[in-house]
Amino acid sequence: MTFNHFFIIDVQPNASAIPLTHGFYRFSNLELTPDGRQSIITADVDSSQHADRALESEIYVADADGSHMRKLIGKKGMSYGGTVLSHDGKWIALRYNKVEYVSVPTLALLPVNGSEKDLVNIPLDRGIGNLIWSKDDQSIYFTAQSNGGAPLYKLDIKTKQVTQLTDVDAGVLSFDIAAGKLVYSQTAITNPCELYAADMNAANPKRITGFNEGWLQQKQISIPEKHSFKNELGQTIEYWVMKPAGYEPGKKYPLLLEIHGGPAAMWGPGELSMWHEYQFFCGKGYGVVYCNPRGSGGYGEKFLRANINDWGKGPSGDVLSALDKTVAEGWADTSRLLVTGGSYAGYLVAWIISHDHRFKAACSQRGVYDLATFFGEGNAWRLVPNYFGGYPWQAETKAILERESPISYVQNIATPYIIFHGDNDRRTGFVEGEMLYRSLKVLGRPVEYVRHPGASHEITRSGNNRQRIDQMLRTWEFFERWIH
To answer: What span, in angstroms and rounded, lies between the C-alpha atoms of 240 and 289?
Structure first.
C-alpha cells in the first residue's frame, strides 16, 4: 500500500521538507492560493473504508501549512478532481464524475470557500483535460477529444460559452499561454508532431519547429478520407480510409481493418499513437480503414455507454460496416482482407474472427479473451462491473461474461492468427493470450504466439522500441505470408 503526500521546501541549500498532508490517505493534488495563506487539496480522507477501496475524492481547503482542513465539496459515489486555481485565487476549475460508472466527467467552476450549492456546471459533453486559466482570469483553455481530433477550446467565464479554437482534423497534445500567445504541440496527418505559436484565439498559427521536416521529405504520406454512416441504433459512426502509398486507380489492394482499444479510446487524424503504424502499412501497399464504433470516446456520454453489456456484437457490427463501405469503393481485394488491434481491440479481433470468416489473417495484441479471468488478473478489472453490471460469481453477470467472451467461441476460429502479449502486462495479463493460444493449438488451427520479455501493456505504443519494431515486422510478415 502506498500513500501520496505533499511537502513544501525552501529553495536554499540544506533545506528540510515540511509535510503539508498526513495520515493513511492518498492526496492527489495541492495548490497554494496566490496570497499564500490557503491550500486547495484533492484527496479521499474517508476513514470508514480501506484506502484501496476508496474511489471517491473530495476537494478541501486548508491553511497554507495543511492544517484546519475542511471539505469544500464531495459525497459518496462521486469523484472531484483536476483542480486548477484562478490567478486571483477566487475560483477553482475542476472536473467530477460518478465512480464505478462509465461516464464523461463534467467541467465545473467552484468559488474558493464555496460549497456544492455554488457549483457552476459547464455544458460540454466531451472528456476535458489540460485546464489553463488566462492571465486575466476571463477565460479557461482546455483540450478535449472530439470526432477523431483533439481540439483546443476556450471557455468564456462571464457567458459560460465554450468556443472550439482548432479543428478535429488534428490533435493538440499539450499547450501553454505566454506573453499573450498560445504555444502548443500538435499532431496531424502531414506531420506527426511539431510546435506552433498562435494568438489567444488560435488564429494565425505559425509552426516554430521542424523536427520531422527533413525526414518527411523522403516519405510518401497517405491522407485519410473521412466518411460516416448511421448504424442500427441511429448513431453516426465516423470512419477514415487510407489508400496505399502510390495508389493506382484500377488496381486491387489488400485492406487492413485497424481497431482501437479502450473500449473508450478514440481514433482519428488527431490521434498520435497510431500515426506510424498506419503509414507503415500504407507504405507496404495496404489500404487501411479505421473507425470509432459505439462505446468510443469523443462523441459524448450516450455514445460512450452504447456498448454496456455489448462489447462484441454491436461494436463489431460498426467496424465491419466501415470495412464493407470501404470495400464498396471498388479498390480493395476481398480475398486479401486483414484485421488487427490491441487491448480491447485485441478482444474485438478475436470476437470478429470467431463470428466472421472473411479475413485472410488476423493479429491481436495484449487482448482480453475471457472476461471472468480478466476480472481476476487484470488491473483494469473494474471494467467488468462497470460495463457488465456485476461480478463473475453472480449468475446473471456470469451468463453475460460468458456470452461476451471470445474464448466461448474459440472453436469457430479458423482464420490464421498471430497473438502478441508482454509478459509484464498487468493491464490485461499474459494469461489471456496464453489461454487463447493454447485453445487454438489444441484445436489444430493456424496460430502463432509471441510473448515479449519484460514488456508491459504499452508494447505497441510507448514500449521498448526494439520490441515495437519486432512486433510490427512480425505482423507484416505474417500478413504477407497468408495473402500471397
So the answer is: 6
Q: Facing residues of 287 across strands?
A: 255
| H-helix segments, 267-394 | 275-283, 301-304, 313-327, 344-353, 371-377, 383-388
Q: Which of 12, 7, 9, 16 is nearest to 39 (CA)?
A: 7
pLDDT mean over 199-225: 94
Contact 279, 319 (CB under 8 A): no
Q: What is the CATH number of the domain that holds 241?
A: 3.40.50.1820
Residue 127 lies in a domain: no
Total length of the chain: 484
**Boundary residue ending a domain (78, 97, 122):** 122
Residues 330, 451 share a domain: yes
Cβ density class 469-480: b for 16+ within 10 Å, e for less = ebbeeebbebbe
C-alpha cell at 420: 502478441
Of 137, 134, 42, 127, nearest to 83 by C-alpha is: 42
Number of domains in the chain: 2
Long-range contacts of 197-206 (CB under 8 A, 24+ apart): 200/134, 200/139, 201/154, 201/163, 201/165, 202/152, 202/165, 202/166
The whole-number pLDDT of residue 47 equals: 65
CA distances from 454 to 391, 425, 432, 451 (A): 30, 8, 16, 9
Asked if the structure places residue 37 within a domain, the reply is: yes
Residue 146 lies in a domain: no
Residues 6+ apart with CB under 8 A from 238: 147, 148, 226, 227, 228, 268, 291, 292
Is the backbone peptide bond immediately before 453 cis, with ω within 30 degrees of 0?
no
Residue 2 lies in a domain: no
Separation in Å, CA 291 to CA 109, 227, 422: 34, 9, 26
Domain range for residue 416? 220-483
- pLDDT tens-digit readout, 376-408: 988 999 999 999 999 999 999 999 999 999 999
CATH assignment of the domain containing 47: 2.120.10.30
Q: How many Å apart are CA 455 and CA 433, to the nearest integer?
A: 14
For the stretch 240-273, what's the b/e string if a residue is b when 16 or more beta carbons lie within 10 angstroms of its beta carbon? bbbbbbeeeeeeebbbbbbbbbbbbbbbbbbbbb
CA distance 292 to 294: 7
Which helix or strand (DSSP H or E) is residue 141 part of?
A: strand 139-144
- Grid coordinates representing 482? 497468408
Digit-coded pLDDT (tens) for 232-287: 999 999 999 999 999 999 999 999 999 999 999 999 999 998 999 999 999 999 99
Under DSSP, the state recorded for 105 is P
Angle 275-283/465-483 helices, nearest 10 degrees? 40
Are 473 and 355 contacting, i.e. CB atoms less than 8 angstroms apart? no
The mean predicted confidence, pLDDT, of the chain is 94
Residues 466, 330 share a domain: yes
